[in-house]
Amino acid sequence: MKKGKKYQANVKTYDKSELFDLDAAVAQVKKMATANFDETIELHARLGVDSRHADQQVRGSVVLPNGTGNEVKVLVLAKGDKLKEAEEAGADYFGEDEYIQRIQEENWFDFDVLIATPDMMGKVGRLGRVLGPKGLMPNPKSGTVTMDIGKAVKDTKAGKVEYRLDKANIIHVIVGKASFGEEQLMQNIGAMLDALKKAKPAAAKGQYFRSVSLASTMSPGVKINTARI
């Protein structure tokens, strides 16, 4: 796929093979984020694990100190008092069978995160084929299957992000916006990297962080020196 003129111009501003310290990587990415909208900054980490094995999965969530800069729409599937808790915490949608039916029959996905109580998972599980590919299936490891609905909603609204390995053993996660200050981005990235370190499977052998890069929506990736992580 051919890249645009701005992308090609950005490539020429630095050595793509260079390994940057974190502060220098953040500065370089912000410098290249010149689109006429507030570009999203993403971290991409290739880990020394094999996602085909159950004991080498890396999945979880972390609340970024400065949020993601994105507005997140939250759907809560629960019963009784938990619906009131969801409303008070700021959930955008909350209910029971009516939303499950809407997803099934109308292919409705006007939400970014789905949080459910454990007693709803029997019904939610039937939606696995449509929720799974979109990364919307609730999971206890990411804190989206919980009885503490209020905390889960507030954390998500405050900037909680989920992370999980893809088939190539890479984590792709949002860490902020180009409009964030460098210190804000470094704090968010530091929190994300610390979470990944803590999530390292006991079965993982050898170098854990194989490669880590930072990129904005419209810019090429900048490689971070993993020896300094």
Topology overview:
Elements: H1 5-11, H2 22-32, E1 40-47, E2 59-63, E3 74-77, H3 81-89, E4 93-95, H4 97-106, E5 113-116, H5 121-124, H6 128-131, H7 149-158, E6 160-164, E7 170-177, H8 182-198, E8 209-216, E9 222-224
Parallel strand pairs: 3-4, 3-5
Antiparallel strand pairs: 1-7, 1-8, 2-6, 8-9
How would you portray this structure in words?
- With 229 residues, this protein is α/β, with parallel strands linked by helices.
- It has 2 domains: 5-68 and 160-224, Ribosomal protein L1/L10, rRNA-binding domain (Ribulose 1,5 Bisphosphate Carboxylase/Oxygenase, 2-Layer Sandwich); 74-158, Ribosomal protein L1/L10, domain II (Rossmann fold), CATH 3.40.50.790.
- The protein is built from 8 helices and 9 strands.
- The protein is globular, with a radius of gyration of 19 Å.
- The protein starts with a helix and ends in a 5-residue tail after the last strand.
- It holds the Pfam family Ribosomal_L1.
- GO terms for molecular function: rRNA binding; structural constituent of ribosome; tRNA binding.
- Belongs to the universal ribosomal protein uL1 family.
- InterPro entries: Ribosom_uL1_bac-type, Ribosomal_uL1, Ribosomal_uL1-like, Ribosomal_uL1/biogenesis, Ribosomal_uL1_3-a/b-sand, Ribosomal_uL1_CS.
Short description:
With 229 residues, the protein is α/β, with parallel strands linked by helices.
Gross morphology is: globular
Number of domains: 2
State the CATH topology of the largest domain. Ribulose 1,5 Bisphosphate Carboxylase/Oxygenase
Broad structural category = alpha/beta
How does the major sheet shape up? 4 strands, antiparallel
GO cellular component, one term: large ribosomal subunit
GO biological process, one term: translation
Keywords: Repressor, Ribonucleoprotein, Ribosomal protein, RNA-binding, rRNA-binding, Translation regulation, tRNA-binding
Protein name: Large ribosomal subunit protein uL1
